[in-house]
Amino acid sequence: MKRALRWVVLTVLLASALFVALLPLTSWQRTSGPAPMSIPASTDGAQLGQPAQPAAESPPSIDQLRSRAALQPCPATHSGTTRGPLSGLVLPCLGQEGTVDVGAALAGRPALLNLWGPLCQPCTQELPALAAYAAEPGAVPVLGVEVQRLPEGALDLLRALNVHYPSVSDPDGRLRAALNAPPVLPLTYLVSADGQVSQLNPPEVLRSPQQVRAVVARYLGPGAAG
């Protein structure tokens, strides 16, 4: 009886020792497992399956803007004596590289000179009217003068309005000073064949080719209107 009791006690002790030995292993199996996936700090959206952001486009160059605007070439110099306030006035051409001697380019023929700028809201109404007039048979040459020193914006606006007659820039304000131009836009000037310049006074916005034609006839004579 005592021997049987000893075997029972021995069996219980061995079972207890085995349970204690296995306990750390089962605890580790419960607490351990796949480690959470870490995302490297350098991972971008494309690596996570998100679409990559497109790179910002660079603004078009002045040459690209000129090509899109497709302005007619600036007038070439005419032979003959130039007189009046435009004599010797050289300005950069807006639609192409190079400069224009405005007085020499308009010498010997009547012309219409229009001062404007891309930030001038009334100019957006007048420019198409001038373009329609310039396309008529017998129209006097029209030359635009961008005076707000924004050639890129000017080219964009001319393209948007489908206006293609020649234009120059007045970045230093020399043409405005030569004409003693008031600080308003748009401004229209009529240039006679002998170089004399008359401002449309009082200034008004020309909204139709018929209105432009009437102004040309009023200042330059009926024959100049064509």
The helix/strand class is alpha/beta
Write down the CATH topology.
Glutaredoxin
Rounded to an integer in angstroms, the radius of gyration calculated over CA atoms is 41 Å
Main sheet makeup: 5 strands, mixed
Task: Give structural notes.
The chain is an alpha/beta fold. It has one domain: Glutaredoxin (3-Layer(aba) Sandwich). The chain is built from eight helices and seven strands, in the order ααββαβαβαβαββαα. The strands form two sheets. A five-stranded mixed beta sheet has the order 5-4-3-6-7, covered by helices on one side. α5 (151-161) links the parallel β4 (142-146) and β5. The chain is globular and about 60 Å long. The protein starts with a helix and ends with a helix.
Quick structural gist:
By secondary structure, this protein is α/β, with parallel strands linked by helices.
Secondary structure blueprint with pairings:
Blueprint: H1 2-31, H2 62-69, E1 90-92, E2 99-101, H3 102-105, E3 111-116, H4 121-134, E4 142-146, H5 151-161, E5 167-169, H6 174-179, E6 187-191, E7 197-199, H7 209-220, H8 222-225
Parallel strand pairs: 3-4, 4-5
Antiparallel strand pairs: 1-2, 3-6, 6-7
Helix pairs in contact: 2-5, 4-7
Tag the structure with descriptive keywords.
226 residues; alpha/beta; Glutaredoxin; two-stranded antiparallel sheet; 8 helices; 7 strands
